[in-house]
Amino acid sequence: MDVIESDLPGVGKKHEVELGDGQVLVIVTHNTGQRELYLKADEDADSEKLLQLSDRMARMVGTILEGAYFQPVESEHVETMLSDDTLLEWYAVDETSPLVGETLASAHVGRETGVTIVAIQREDDVLSAPDSGTQLRAGDTLVVVGDRDSCEAFEALLTGEETEE
Amino acid sequence: MADLLTVGALFAAIAVVSILAARLGTSVIPLYIVTGMLVSPTVAGELVIAGTDVPAIQTGEFVEIGAELGIVFLLFFLGLEFNLERLVADRARIVSAGTIDLLVNFTAGLAVGYLLFGTPLAAFLVAGIVYISSSAIITKSLIDLGWIANDEAAPLLGTLVFEDLAIAVYLAIAVALVAGGSGVAGLATSVGLALGFIVLLLLVVQFGSEAFERLLEGTSNEFLVLRAVGVTVLVAGVALAIGVSEAVAAFFVGMAFASTSHVERLERLLEPVRDVFAAIFFVWIGLETDPMLVMEVAAFVAIAVVATTPTKLVSGYLGGRAYDLGPRRSTRVGLGMVTRGEFSLIIAAVALEGAGGTLSAAVAGDLYSFAVGYVLAMSVLGTVLMQYSAPFERFAVERFGTE
């Protein structure tokens, strides 16, 4: 990700952030502290003004964006409540997951986390009630039942991250 | 009228037009000038409504000194925001765009000035008036239109930086020429003195930054402002006393402060001070202007507008190309540079100093009225051109393609 900084003599500074899909976010910081945000649809387009913020507002918004107040847990799942404390959740297994190549038995899913894998969606098929010898592959979607704590523990196991406390 | 009441009325008038400018979304500078003209003895003083004389505002000592301080602070800020490192880092592009701008417009100004006023000195002053674009109005328009976030902002602001430096040198020479002296020797002495003073100030900027740093170290806002104002106005006053441009002195003092670590605080704290005195300067310009005299030189103004709008369009366009911009954005650079403003008026004030000396009273008066009329026309025209840039951009793209 490239950020280009340039001076605006008599005005302040300009930062251009490439957003990846050709769009450019332009942040103009005035000497007075005021910030203006512009979006360029592509390299040659005119800048469309999104909003302007006072110095204080800009710092607060910046802190929220930085994740100081709330950091969402990285997950790609949909959850459904089965009862007050039982969830039915879908988890995607990506290539970097430590569970890729493990069987349900060797991963000790039940013992480690307390959840039960009730089905595996693999391409167009659904393997319902998979047995303990079923191997997990990248690209699988796992359908899991458990309470909230167990689900969080399973997510940590799946992504290879330590559970945050 | 009591003096305090006069000054109060003046500030009230300024406050009212600034509200009006905010409502209309236009630049305040032409409105300040018109206000000055309207409240002056030549307009308000002539009016009689329902049998009573309408009170007019006289230029008193306070307004004159206030206007002078306005010039000092305008140039001080130019120096404060002037960044030599920035100029050096981007020198290839800034110098090529800036040189084109200088050559095309200064030359055109010399020709127009000589044609209209017939003396070399008047031609030199007109050249300055038409060369220097308005940083204040252009920067405001850039922000209002959102161009500030686009690529055309770089050549526009870069060329203005070049102009700032050029105008500092120009003013030093212009003030010396207008002050004059007897014969070639006297003239050489005053120009030599002016250039010597610039060299001295450059040395102070180069080697004195530690002293400036120490001067402002660890002070409260109050003392910071007082010390900066104390140094700036004193140096400007000394310059004027020995016959050198106070504006140029203020520019270099600003540059010296710019190299300290307090530059951002100074900008923030002194901005309102500059704005108050700059407003007085613009109103004073209006007060000194007789609208009838402006009407008399209207043909001169029209000739200059017709001659020097295209020159800025061309030089700005070429400047944009020097920054590797396409025809569309280069056209915007040209349109943006058309606006003339505060610095042309400072040159007009210099011309007034020469009345009865190096310039005949008639020429000085005409030149002054011409400059005011020209700035009023160009400040409005330039802003309008920027607002309605689309047809010009289409024309450029049809003519020169998109690359």
Can you put this structure into words, describing what you see?
The complex is a heterodimer of chains A (165) and B (403). Chain A has three helices and ten strands, in the order βββββαββαβββα. In chain A, a hairpin with a 2-residue loop joins strand 6 and strand 7. In chain A, the strands form two sheets. Chain A has a five-stranded antiparallel beta sheet. Chain A has a five-stranded antiparallel beta sheet with strand order 6-7-10-8-9. By secondary structure, chain A is an alpha+beta fold. With 403 residues, chain B is mainly alpha-helical. Chain B has one domain: Up-down Bundle (Na+/H+ antiporter like fold), CATH 1.20.1530. Chain B has a two-stranded antiparallel ribbon with strand order 1-2. In chain B, helix 16 crosses helix 19 and helix 17 (342-353) packs antiparallel against helix 18 (361-387). Classes of the chains: A alpha+beta (165), B mainly alpha (403). At the A-B interface, strand 1 and strand 4 of A face helix 7, helix 8 and helix 13 of B.
Shape assignment of chain B: globular
Largest sheet of chain B: 2 strands, antiparallel
**Assembly category:** heterodimer
Poorly predicted runs of chain B are none
Taken in chain order, the helices and strands of chain B follow as HHEEHHHHHHHHHHHHHHHHH
How many β-strands of chain A, per DSSP? 10
What is the CATH level 1 assignment of chain B? Answer: Mainly Alpha
CATH class of the largest domain in chain A: Alpha Beta
Indicate the percent of residues in helices of chain B.
Answer: over 70%
How large, in whole angstroms, is the Cα Rg of chain A? 23 Å
Helix-strand makeup class of chain A: alpha+beta
**Which sheet architecture does the biggest sheet of chain A show?**
5 strands, antiparallel
Percent of residues of chain A in beta strands? 35-45%
The averaged pLDDT of chain A comes out at 83
Rg of chain B, alpha carbons: 21 Å
Binned strand content of chain B: under 5%
CATH architecture descriptor text of the largest domain in chain A: 2-Layer Sandwich
* First-residue to last-residue Cα separation of chain B: 63 Å
pLDDT averaged over residues of chain B: 88
List the strand order in the largest sheet of chain B.
1-2
Write down the overall geometry of chain A.
elongated
